[in-house]
Write a structure and sequence with these properties.
alpha/beta
Length: 275
């Protein structure tokens, strides 16, 4: 089998919500100094992102300079620009930009397969003047997680506006589900190895295996500030991290909340090998 991406799940691009590029109360977002400090100097990763790129970059561009957006639907004419940014150089391409999704059979099972392609562009965020590098990776987020990131490099992981059924990716990054195809299995364990010891998870509860993250999922009536107020001060430990709700972005499938994670056991090369 060639070095492509394969999965058995369906996917669709997320709808985009355009919001102000400043810290505001509802219906905008709250990104505090604490949040910025955790994000600073790390890498941002958003699988199954579709066109939902503007708010993510606006919220974190002052402190994060490398952004990865991943989706199997990306094409050359749908990448390379983000609202609120100007491009400061040419778009580079790694891979075959015109490859298409195909169906393949492996060991009697039909799955989707696509050759990955990465478009990279230097951008300047107009509101903050921040210079960033944005990558759009055509392919499945599970493979991007495995192939594109060093251990302990991701400071912000974002996943929202998704679902497990038809029209969604079926990817459960914030869960520990077994899968027959190993790269898709126990995704949170794989994500944990890529997260820094302090990191942020930004989620509306989509495809989450952690009950606390789903408190307001599909709740269109509760806005971000109210959800944050309800969860403020609630600290829980799960899957090797201490979780605290520390902010919010704009809504998607309910309020999008920002969770600060602190690793309970610092990862060393030996610990990563044994994980």
């Amino acid at each position: 089998m060639t070095n492509g991406d394969r999965t058995g799940a369906g996917t669709a691009p997320s709808e985009m919500v355009a919001l102000p590029a400043t810290e505001t109360a509802s219906p905008g977002w709250l990104v505090t100094d604490e949040v910025r400090a955790v994000a600073r100097g790390g890498v941002f990763f958003y699988p199954c992102a579709g066109t939902d790129t503007e708010e993510a970059l606006a919220a974190f561009a002052p402190d994060v300079t490398t952004f990865w957006f991943c989706d199997p639907t990306y094409r050359a004419d749908t990448v390379g620009a983000i609202a609120g940014c100007e491009r400061t150089g040419p778009v580079s391409v790694q891979g075959e930009p015109n490859a298409a999704m195909v169906s393949r059979e492996t060991e009697g099972r039909i799955h989707r397969w696509i050759e990955p392609c990465v478009w990279t562009a230097p951008l300047r965020h107009q509101s903050t003047g921040a210079d960033v590098t944005a990558h759009w990776r055509r392919g499945f987020g599970e493979y991007a997680l495995a192939r594109e990131f060093k251990d302990c490099s991701i400071s912000v992981f974002m996943h929202r506006g998704d679902s497990p059924g038809e029209g969604g990716s079926g990817a459960h990054f914030l869960d520990r589900r077994p899968k027959r195809h190993e790269p898709l299995a126990f995704l949170f364990d794989k994500l944990a190895a890529k997260l820094r010891d302090e990191a942020l998870v930004v989620t509306d509860g989509s495809n989450c295996g952690i009950l606390e993250l789903r408190t307001f999922h599909r709740d269109r009536a509760t806005e971000g500030p109210r959800a944050l107020e309800a969860l403020a001060g609630q600290i829980f430990e799960r899957w090797g991290f201490r979780w605290t709700c520390v902010g919010h972005l704009g809504p998607k499938y309910g309020p999008t909340l920002i969770w600060k994670l602190r690793r309970l056991i610092t990862l060393t090369p030996a610990a990563l090998k044994d994980a």
